[in-house]
Known about the structure:
Layout: E1 6-12, H1 26-39, E2 43-47, H2 60-74, H3 104-109, E3 123-126, H4 130-140, E4 144-147, H5 157-164, E5 168-171, H6 189-207, E6 212-215, H7 224-232, H8 234-240, E7 247-248, H9 254-260, H10 268-280, E8 285-288, H11 291-305
Parallel strand pairs: 1-2, 1-8, 2-3, 3-4, 4-5, 5-6, 7-8
Amino acid sequence: MVGNIHILGIVNLTPDSFYAGSRVKADEAVSRIRQMLSDGADAVDLGACSTRPGSVQPSLEEEWARLEPVLKEMAGHSLPGDSVADAPSAPPIAPCPSGPGCGPLPLYLSGGGQAPGRECPVISIDTYRSEIVRRAYDLIGPFIVNDISGGQLDPDMLSTVGRLGLPYIAMHMRGTPETMQSLTDYDDVVASVIDYFNEFARKAEDAGIETWLPDPGFGFSKTLDQNYELLHRLGEVVRAFPDREVLVGVSRKSMVYKALGITPEEAMPATQIIQFQAMEKGARWLRVHDVKEAVTTARLYSTMYTSSPGAAK
Length: 313
């Protein structure tokens, strides 16, 4: 954590994610995870199903075939941060030594600071399928579930997450990745996002989900102008949920590169500007492709706006 900002690194196990630099093959994934954690990521988000606009979704078995070998390899590896001393003999990342429910992880996610010794996994899995969650839990124990649909695409997702006691990232989206960009008719996009999370809060309580983060869903079911209105008024979303830490994912997205007429590969400096503004508006988690650069941005923010100037050293 940099000051009061958490960094979630992106590792895509897909051949078609919009930013080629985020894609890795299964045999490269653990090395990329290690590097991101060494660079300062608090957690790493594994995606085996591209959800870029217009993407055609793979079958469940295809998604699992991409994810399973990486999780199996991780289960036999120690990653940076797995122990206080970061010793080579640190225990494997899975299963979690705290057992089902993994007490320290919700504390870590909810702003209580890094759990001593980071006893829990530092892994998030980007999926909207409850069966993927169940299979992954059987392999590595507790992890963070990052669901672009907030439980809308699988009726069993929220009950599964609640039963397993997992932290959850709920994103705002309409429709599916194939249809979402045709579903941008809002009277007020920010009010719609707030209403969505108010409704999700009720669903989460019913499902027994205690720890969850709202992600406003930049780039999902929103036009270019709506993305920037949401960014400009992000503070309204933050203030609507004072007990939750808002996560923002804008890294190299079309709202950045299309606005400037550049490519995702050229969009890092502009991404940092938008990430900085998101932090100014109250975002406390950044989901990023470029961990080192995000850490630098968070350190500068911390020095300028918080009581943790030492985070910049």
